[in-house]
């Protein structure tokens, strides 16, 4: 396994096969999240694995509601990007993927959001390493997740990661970023 | 190379050898940062590589000033953590490491902070893959970096990554996080 190939081959996935797999693989992937560094070693996050179908459906309905509002108020460039990517507002991936993982960060910890997203990146690569596809999907409002899953209010859900096997691997993205690297000053 | 070994072996490093290496390795590491997914594919960040010694010294002095203030006002648990880790307030790593990389995120882009930290995680793993050590160091105030490096104010510097060879590899950390994984609800 070449690290750079793993990074390049990983793609965000919105279409999943309804194919089950053992929860132990999800746990292995999430364990990799705790290998990431975090502010003052606080690991300011929890992971909630969801496989209950009625719960997944409640989450999907809530996401559809909050995101339709958000989409309608979005700038044109964002709407065009969504349409260009053929991203449906129905969020079927929240039902089709056998597992959802909610990652919630503890807002009372230093650098909680930064640390949580370092951990999420490790999880993305671990998933690819296990042949599992996912997506970093954040609904435009998240307080309904606290209520549904009884998450204390000091924790903010920052992402829903559906885990499953993708229907069709999206093609590789354009990875050039030479225009983003500068020397000793900006530009 | 095993991905999980790479993740576990990577350690935050604060003591660097004054040993030079080619800038091309830094560029290769930063390129890996652009392989990470980002909100609406916007890649909302820039990387500024610094090898100019007088500039590194100016950065170090500013960091020492802002962080001494911050440390004095910090809660006891944080002071004790700093002392326990033998973390000096003099920040010699900002001089000793041959390269510093400032990562700045574009605050006008959606999910800019989240996307930037996904990219930073990819960079941490790429550095370990190249045998280069680093640290995610964020000074408690960052506006002096915008001034010094002429970075537009819509970009916020979110981290300084020193790149170099570590004096002594810190021992492995405790990686257990079983108490962080829940099923279908919190706890």
Topology summary:
Two copies of one chain form a homodimer.
Chain A: H1 3-9, H2 23-33, E1 45-50, H3 53-72, H4 76-84, H5 93-96, E2 99-106, H6 112-129, H7 143-149, E3 155-163, E4 181-183
Antiparallel strand pairs in A: 1-2, 2-3
Describe this structure in words.
Two copies of one chain form a homodimer. Chain A has 187 residues and is of the alpha+beta class. Chain A has helices at 3-9, 23-33, 53-72, 76-84, 93-96, 112-129, 143-149; strands at 45-50, 99-106, 155-163, 181-183. The first copy, chain A, has one domain (3-180): NADH Oxidase (3-Layer(aba) Sandwich). Chain A contains seven helices and four strands; from the N terminus they run ααβαααβααββ. In chain A, helix 2 crosses helix 6. The longest helix of chain A has 20 residues, at 53-72. At the A-B interface, helix 1, helix 2, strand 1, helix 6 and strand 3 of A face helix 1, helix 2, strand 1, helix 6 and strand 3 of B.
Number of strands of chain A: 4
| Chain-averaged pLDDT of chain A | 93
What oligomeric state is this?
homodimer
Q: What is the second-level CATH architecture of chain A?
A: 3-Layer(aba) Sandwich
Biggest chain contact: A-B, 68 and 68 residues
The number of distinct structural domains of chain A comes to 1
């Amino acid at each position: 396994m070449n690290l750079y190939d793993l990074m390049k081959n990983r793609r965000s996935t919105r279409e999943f096969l309804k194919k089950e797999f053992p929860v132990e693989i999800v746990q292995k992937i999430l364990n990799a999240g705790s290998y990431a560094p975090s502010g003052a070693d606080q690991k300011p996050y929890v992971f909630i694995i969801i496989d209950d179908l009625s719960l997944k459906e409640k989450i999907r309905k809530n996401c559809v509601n909050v995101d339709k509002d958000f989409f309608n108020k979005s700038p044109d460039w964002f709407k065009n990007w969504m349409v260009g990517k053929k991203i449906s507002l129905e969020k079927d991936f929240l039902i089709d993927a056998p597992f959802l993982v909610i990652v919630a960060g503890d807002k009372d910890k230093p650098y909680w959001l930064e640390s949580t997203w370092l951990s999420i990146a490790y999880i993305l690569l671990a998933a690819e390493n296990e042949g599992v596809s996912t997506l970093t999907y954040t609904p435009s409002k998240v307080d309904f997740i606290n209520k549904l899953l009884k998450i204390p209010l000091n924790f903010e859900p920052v992402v829903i990661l559906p885990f499953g096997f993708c229907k069709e691997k999206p093609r590789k993205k354009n990875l050039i970023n030479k225009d983003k690297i500068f020397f000793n000053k900006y530009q």
